[in-house]
Specification:
454 residues, alpha+beta, Ubiquitin-like (UB roll), Creatine Kinase, Chain A, domain 2, 3 domains, 8-stranded mixed sheet, 6-stranded mixed sheet, 34% helix
């Protein structure tokens, strides 16, 4: 980690005039306060910056203010704003204690718990999917009439000039019309944010679907990298006059966008404790067992929107683990020579990564502590089985709305105690219930198509 003096030297040497203090709200959105460089010195970088302006963001009113403490590892100079740098910040109270609604606190607690289990580092490789649209519009002429959405892309199958390939997965230019956009994102992400893209390609869907893989990072850094990646994509597309969306299912006829997470853990000797030679270790099996035991509760954080569950209608996921295909919630890739990969296939990019990744790890750690044996690993493809066969094998599909996950976590709370605080959880679940109720109340275009003329 760079020291405060080194950071000050970089600020002075590069003529930085403004500092963006970024912090994360409980839903994973970047919030920002911009301060003059004159207010930045070694004392404020170490002790933090007091603010009276952010209590309402966390549904609270703090007259005595909170303190934003910059993480020195997250210093970058932003390419889209003149002479401006940013830090991600943790939030504390004036007395030095952590603010319990700061989502980063959950990630810090996971790091502490992992050390108690003899885990030296947690690695997460992230593969994010998203769509790019040349045209996006919502007609809100009058609120009571509902919204009409218009989506357009040079690759959209409803565009008469679009490429005609049936399967666009990993296609090349000129069929892949947004390759240059991904290249630009990759360049900005690596040059200015110091994160590497391992690979990028056209996604599995036809309509300008994108897939990009971020190099494996340590647990906390992976969450910062996730948030930075979405910001780079959103900013780069906006500045090019187009739009990007990470919503899981914007187009009803396609499988939508997911977020794959490949997880590894290493001890002090640098060995992956989840993997033996050609198979999972005992710790790896228990880790899987813990995730499967708490999976329905985890979904509150890993698939946090009403749109998240629409994706499972066209791209079904099963509450299983297996080495056959990625319709299993946990896919075990044993194609490597010496070790296997443990990949979670079900999350989507609407997550707050600090909460979602912490919930995943907390469930896995619970399995490791209790030595929770998972069900037998599937070698068959659950996606090709008939419903009777799946029922006989007690293979359960993912729920179709977030309410079942909310009900589950209300009765399955112990595994995240001490990780995700009650202060966050109450507000978080209250908002998710509200979203589900509101979404269920509003007529959608399908209902007009089906019922208006009857």
């Amino acid at each position: 980690m760079p020291g405060t003096k080194e950071i000050i030297d970089r600020i002075n040497g590069n003529g930085i005039k403004w500092i963006n203090l970024h912090f994360i709200d409980i839903f994973g959105y970047i919030r920002e306060i911009t301060i003059n460089r004159e207010n930045v010195n070694e004392e404020t970088l170490e002790g933090g910056f007091e603010t009276n302006a952010i209590g309402s963001i966390f549904n609270e009113d703090y007259n005595d203010g909170l303190v934003l403490i910059p993480d020195m590892n997250t210093y970058v100079e932003l390419p889209w704003v003149d002479r401006t740098a940013r830090f991600f910040c943790r939030i504390s109270r004036k007395d030095g204690t952590r603010y319990l609604k700061d989502p980063i606190y959950a990630g810090d607690r996971i790091k502490m718990n992992s050390e108690a289990l003899g885990i030296d580092s947690i690695g997460i490789k992230q593969r994010l999917e998203f769509y790019i649209f040349d045209r996006y519009g919502v007609d809100r002429t009058y609120k009571e009439g509902g919204a009409a959405v218009t989506l357009g892309s040079k690759e959209s199958k409803w565009n008469p000039n679009a490429p005609i390939l049936e399967n666009m997965n990993s296609t090349s230019f000129p069929n892949d019309l947004y390759n240059g956009m991904r290249q630009q994102v990759s360049q900005v992400y690596s040059q200015f944010f110091n994160y590497s893209i391992d690979r990028h390609m056209h996604g599995k869907n036809s309509s300008s679907h994108q897939s990009m893989e971020v190099k494996e990072l340590d647990f906390i850094d992976s969450a910062f990298a996730f948030i930075s990646f979405k910001q780079v994509v959103k900013t780069a597309t906006f500045m090019n006059g187009i739009s990007a969306t990470f919503m899981p299912m914007p187009i009803p006829s396609e499988k939508g966008s997911g977020l794959e997470l490949e997880i590894s853990m290493k001890n002090s000797k640098g060995n992956n404790i989840l993997s033996g030679k050609g198979e999972l270790s005992d710790s790896g099996n228990y880790f899987v067992g813990g995730i499967l035991e708490h999976l329905k509760s985890i979904l509150v954080f890993t698939n946090p929107t009403t749109n998240s569950y629409k994706r499972f209608y066209v791209d079904p996921k099963f509450m299983t683990w297996g080495n056959s295909d990625k319709s299993n919630a946990i896919f075990i890739d044993a194609s490597g020579k010496d070790s296997v990969k443990l990949i979670l296939t079900f999350p989507d990019s609407m997550v707050n990564p600090f909460l979602a990744y912490s919930a995943i790890m907390a469930a896995g750690f619970d399995g490791m502590k209790k030595k929770t044996a998972p069900s037998e690993m599937l070698t068959e493809r659950p996606s090709t089985m008939g419903s009777k066969e799946r029922k006989k094998m007690k293979i359960e599909e993912f729920p179709r709305d977030i309410m079942s996950s909310i009900e589950s976590i209300e009765n399955d709370i112990d595994f995240i105690k001490g990780i995700i605080t009650p202060e966050i959880l109450v507000d978080y679940l209250e908002q998710k219930v509200k979203e589900q109720k509101t979404g269920s109340m509003i007529p959608n275009p399908y209902e007009f198509d089906e019922y208006f003329h009857l």
